[in-house]
Every structure is written in structure tokens, then in C-alpha cells.
Amino acid sequence: MTVLGVPILEGLYPSTMDLYPLQAKEFNRIHPFYENLRQNRFTTTKCKKCGNVPFPPRVVCPQCNSDDLEWVDLPTQGKVLRFTEEVAGVPLGFETPLIHALVDLGEGRKFISRVVNCKEGQLKEGATVKLAVFDIPAMIVEKKGVMDEVPRVFFAFEPVK
Amino acid sequence: MADVAIVSAGQSVFTRSCGESIRELAFEAFKEALEGLDITTGDIDASIICSAPEYDKQRSPAGLISEYLELTPKPSFYVETVCSSSSTGLRVAWSLVKSGLHKMVAVIGFQKMSELSSRDAAERMGRGADIIWESPFGLTMPAGYAMYAQAHMDKYGTTEEHLAKVRVKNSHYGATNPKATYRKELSLEDILNSEVITSPLKKFDCCANADGSSCIIVARGDVAKGITDKPIWIVGLGAATDTMTMAGRELLTGLKCAQEAARQAYKMARLKPQDIDVAEVHDCFTVSEILAYEDLGFAKPGEGVGLIEDKETYADGTIPVNVDGGLLSKGHPIGATGGSQIRTIVRQLRGEATEAQVKGAEIGLVHNIGGIGQYGNVTILRR
Ligand SMILES: CC(C)(COP(=O)(O)OP(=O)(O)OC[C@H]1O[C@@H](n2cnc3c(N)ncnc32)[C@H](O)[C@@H]1OP(=O)(O)O)[C@@H](O)C(=O)NCCC(=O)NCCS
Ligand SMILES: [Zn+2]
Known about the structure:
The complex is a heterodimer. By secondary structure, chain A is mainly β. Chain A is built from 1 helix and 7 strands, in the order αβββββββ. A 5-stranded antiparallel β-sheet of chain A has the order 5-4-3-6-7, covered by helices on one side. A two-stranded antiparallel ribbon of chain A has the order 1-2. The relative contact order of chain A is 0.17. Chain B has helices spanning 22-34, 61-68, 85-98, 118-126, 141-156, 160-174, 188-192, 221-227, 256-269, 286-295, 304-309, 326-330, 334-349, and strands at residues 4-11, 46-50, 76-79, 104-111, 196-198, 201-202, 212-220, 232-241, 278-280, 363-370, 375-382. Chain B is an alpha/beta fold. Chain B contains 13 helices and 11 strands. Chain B has a domain at 4-116 and 209-227: Peroxisomal Thiolase, Chain A, domain 1, CATH 3.40.47.10. The chains are: A mainly beta, B alpha/beta. Chain A binds chain B through residues 1-4, 19-21, 28, 55-56, 82, 84-94, 98, 100, 102, 110-114, 136, 154, 156, and chain B through 17, 114-120, 122-123, 125-127, 131-140, 142-144, 146-147, 150-151, 154, 195-201, 203, 245-247, 252. Bound molecules: coenzyme A (COA) and zinc ion. Zinc ion (ZN) binds next to loops of chain A.
């Protein structure tokens, strides 16, 4: 016997169980990443001092400690190096097949991502995938007694047809 | 001679569903650890409570468990490195005793996973990845280790059959372990024909969620000798981390955190892989045991499958591994697992194992990994 959940009490939003990042500028300093993502851009920060381009984006350069950074575009297409199709036991909130892939974005940049819009058995090693941006549940916030909804997006990759 | 020893080790039965609250579950292991020892709870100077959060409703379980075990007013606190929490707890206990701050410390690991469905548990485990960059992909432990398995197969020609042979061995020993969740011998066919979870891993390549608790009591050498005539000395401790993000990993054919932890532990113990008589390794998946053979130096990189092929990791082989059934048979109650591995080695070194006993074992090793290779812990014990 397992507990499947209890009805959420009115006025209570289970914020700590939300799996997605708090993207609004009130909650983090890399919010431009999500603003760019909305425009189908996959971006990170580049250090203007030493040229370092880490991913994920930073607010201080991990190599030289400079905070003089600029947003730059990363490739939005890559090649699947390896992948696994998870067909059982996927986390709540996800559907099967849940496809996880190691994607090569070029310039020695590898990235673990989910592959969406792809049926079981369809993906092949070496396939080209591209950035896919989609809506996720909005964040419900309260400011001075007024409820508001902050829309959010997230990303994955999808096969290039 | 090292001067911190384990005086006693206990665990609950690991089971799919214990039917107890976490305090009652923790008490089971504590009770077994205290059995036959001429000490009272008042002799324990501090308790370290180890688990991964969010599987049950309690926050800050240390205070709760400390009260229930009647360990108040002694200090109690929480230590967490997901699946390796209780090995980290042992490391902290060693430091507390070694520093002279305490004479005797209890390390209590627990996890109650049965309140959640396995998909809900997978969601909780997924939060153990980078919550901004990777958890939202639905990254899971089986998927992460499936990538390691593929990399090992591509580079070294490891096959699904090799992986299955690990479970054949572990199910063989699990069948004799009264504390294990799964006590049925499985054939190669059973394993190869089990349903695919995430290729190439099938259901029987995976450990299962379970409820369980473990308790290790650690004491200063002179105190230990007064309590037991079979103290088990902690002679090597190693711990390391790797990147939280899988994208940051350099290597997918081995766990760097385990390699580094092993290097430290061997160095501290002044021992080599060939000196180990019996080992417990973190076989959360069959492939994890093969990686462990190589990361611990029992085999060269890429040659781990040779050990299982030649049955060298069976109880009468050159390096017996997981002869209590491993996580694959026992089940994996996250915070309790490390303590259970340590308990097995303690019993082996004392010659008291009721499952397969490795003859004359003097030196044992515990390899306990947290997350998808994020936290590596290697502990070497000696009788
Ligand atoms: C492999 C896995 C996905 C199977 O999930 P599932 O199909 O949803 O399985 P359920 O938990 O619903 O169990 C279904 C049945 O299969 C059995 N079962 C599940 N996993 C098993 C395993 N690995 N070995 C043997 N039997 C298993 C269960 O006991 C249950 O049978 P029961 O009802 O008779 O007890 C799940 O066990 C899993 O996620 N394991 C990995 C856990 C993990 O990652 N831990 C951390 C590693 S570091
Ligand atoms: Zn810089």
C-alpha cells in the first residue's frame, strides 16, 4: 500500500514539490537564460576578461572571479552520442518513454538532456537533435495580497525531421 | 594500531513495507546493535542520524529518533549524502572519537520508502540531481547508470549477460540472508528475460526501494576493548565527490568519486587492493558492481567482467564481493544501506556471518556511493 496523495487544501500551493526552477528575476540571477529560451535561444555566460564560456551560466567567472560577463548563444543543434529509453518506473509527472540522451553540441561541449517528440525505437545514435522549448506549469505567486501567475518555459531536445 | 573501533553493528530486516513509523524502524537496528553488549544508552555520547530527506514526512528526524531511543540529552544531528549517508555518518563518528570529543557514538541510518509509489520515489531521487539543470529532465538513477553501462559496453565489450551474472551471484547469496528483501535464487534467464526498465538495464539489473534501518556503534580503542573481545578497527577512510551534473562528467566507464575515495582509503590503511579479503560494494545496479571492481583496483579498467565470469567474487574466490546478497537482494533503503554493508563486513571479520562466511577474513572493505556517482565513500576495516 502506498499513499497516492491527499487533496491540496484551499489556498495552499505545494511550492517545494514543484520540480521546475523559479525563473522570475525575483528568485535568481540567471533569469536572462529563460528570457532567451523563450526566443528559442540556448544561451550561457561568457567571461569578458578571460573568455571562459562555462555551462550552466554563472554570475561570477569560476576561472578568474570576474563578474563582467555577457550572454552568448550556444548551438541549438547537436548529435546524440548515446541515449536510453526509460519505459518503466519514470518519475511522477513524466510519461514513457522518457528518453535521456548525451548530446554533443560541438566545441567539446557535451550535454545530458531529455529528448521529446520522439516515439520509442525511433531515435538512433548519431541522430541530429535540436532545441525544443515548451511551456511548463506557471508559477503562482502572491505579492501584497494579490495573486498572480508567472508563465514559465523549459527545454529539451527533439529529433530533426 | 588504529584507535577507533566498531564495537557493534545491527540492522532491521529490509523489506518492501515495514509497517512501522520511522522511529520504530530505527529502533529495530539500535536494538540489534545493543544486544549482548554490556552498555546502556547513557554510555552513548552522541548519535548521528542518516537518511535522505522527503521520503517520509518528518523533517529533522535526528531529534525525534534521539528521543525515541532515549539518547537525550546527548547531542544528535543529521548527516546526508543520499545513498551513502550512513558511510558518511561513520566518517563523522570516527572524527568525533578520534578528536577526543566523544568516547562512543552511534550511527543510525534509516529509510522508509513504502509510503510512496516507486514513481513517486523516483521523483524524489531525481531531486538529488541538479534541481535547476537536470532534475527537470526527469533524470533518474536507472537512466544515469544505463548510460554508464552503455559506455562500458562500447569501450570494453561488456554484455548484458555479464551484467546478469552479477545478479545471479548476488541472488544466490541473498537467498541465505534472513535480512534481505529478495531471498529467491534467480537464473541467468530470469534476469535476461525480466522487463526492460531503461536499456540496457532490466528490472533484475536494478535494486528495489525498501524500508530498513542500520546502526553502527563506534568507540575509542580502549573503551572498545572493554566492551567487546572482537573490536573491528577502522583503518582506512576515503571520501570524494564528483560533479552534481551528469553533463560535467569526464568519465562514463568508471566512477571518479569511487576511484579517489579508494585511493585515500588504501593510503590511510597502508594496504593494497590485493590485501582485501572480503568486500561490500554498492551494487545499486548490476553494472555498478562491475564498475566497483575496477574503481577499487580488484581488476584493471575494462577487466571487471573477468572477475564475475571466473566466479572470483564468489565466497570462495580471490576477492569475495557482496556475499550477503548486495543491494540487489537486500533492497536499498537509501540512508540505511551503508550501515548494512558495514554490518556485513563486521560479521565477516568476526567470523560470525550466517550467510556465506569467507574463511579467515581479516581485512574488509566497504564501497558506498551516493547518487549517480556524486558521493564516493570507501571504508577499510580490520579485525
Ligand atoms: C526497477 C524499478 C524501476 C522497478 O519499478 P516498478 O516496476 O515500478 O516496481 P514496483 O516498485 O512497482 O514493484 C513491482 C514489483 O516488482 C518487484 N521488484 C521491483 N524491483 C525489483 C527488483 N529490482 N528486483 C526484484 N523485484 C523487484 C517488487 O517487489 C514488486 O513486487 P511485489 O509487489 O510482489 O513486492 C524500481 O525498482 C527502481 O526504480 N529501482 C531503482 C531504485 C534506485 O534507483 N535506487 C537508488 C540507486 S543508487
Ligand atoms: Zn574569467
